[in-house]
Amino acid sequence: MVILVSPYDPGRFARVVVGNGGLLTGDTPPGRAFVDWLDFSQNPPGFEAGWVVNGATTSELSSEVVAAYDAPYPDDSYMEGARIFPSLVPISPDDPSVPSNRAAWVKLRSFERPFLCAFSDMDPITRGGEANFIRVVPGAEDQPHITIEGAGHFLQEDQGPQLALVLVNWLAGCACAVGGACIAFAYDDHWCSNRGQSR
User: 78 in helix, strand or coil?
Assistant: First the structure.
């Protein structure tokens, strides 16, 4: 949603981070992984939030975490929103949401505030989707875009600590307030080649 709104009201957003997301216009047919996901979401039974999230991660979630994802949906009657969500992704040019997405891409071409992509390497649906943002959005130029390794669709579950360090480091301008060292340097020394420099 932020991707869609931010170009229209850039004053509300000092920076934007996109991870495993997209702004589709239906020009390119969806991949098999998305088609399978869409079909599954629309065909009961067995649509359980915790099971879905666990299946879209590279790690095995604990039973407590799976139960937490299931908690808002005590029975299938609560799942209408979750089930319908995949069908709202525009996969053909005549989809009703395509005009607003196309308009957002036009606006993104002049979005000059910092724009960072942090996609994962193991999400079969969004992997590689950062390329369009990096190519089109002026604010994405010279940003330290990163591919989070070993993560599926739900970055926060598979590589939460690394993702947090990437965001904190970027928001801090690639410099740590404690000792002047790059925050992420303590975690992964390939991340920041410009530590100490403000972005």
Answer: helix
